[in-house]
Amino acid sequence: MNKNDKAQALRAKIANAAIKLFLAEGFDQITVDAIAAVAGVSRRNLFRYFASKEDIAIFWTEITGPQLVNQLHEHSEDIRKQPVQAALDAVIRHVDQHNELHQVSLAMGNLIENTPSLRARNHEKYLSWEGLMADALIEKGTYPILGKMAAAIALAGLRLAVKEWLACKGSKPIADILKQVYEPFINIKL
Description:
Blueprint: H1 3-25, H2 32-39, H3 43-49, H4 53-59, H5 64-74, H6 83-97, H7 102-113, H8 116-139, H9 144-167, H10 174-182
């Protein structure tokens, strides 16, 4: 295992310990020292990998943006002709492929919604994913403004679907809600 892989593994170990604590006791009740103790690292080492508790809480979503871009690259047949459809399909495939994470995502989504400092970071997360997706669409030949619009539609739809999913406490599958939100945009031609 190279140095970068070891660092990523340690970041994941810290984040997983923190998520368990956050979900059990709440974000504000957990200290950095408690996270470090459960993760088996020093406070100083924890801060080597994360600047704040908020960074730890949002860490588990960092890979989603690159995964969405990978979905675009893997299914890039008509990106230039139908960027909105390509962006929507990428998000739907991503959600469909991560069923095993939906319960943790629901719990973390509720934690984020109920924690003001995390809500702000959550908004930044969606903007970051939108930018990554727009860049990938543009790189594949979509006109810049259309690439940005397609990414904005896809990520705004995801954000709204997640809010609805949280509101219904997961009683409806997120994939079904997402497809319902996206339905008016399916096969839209720009």
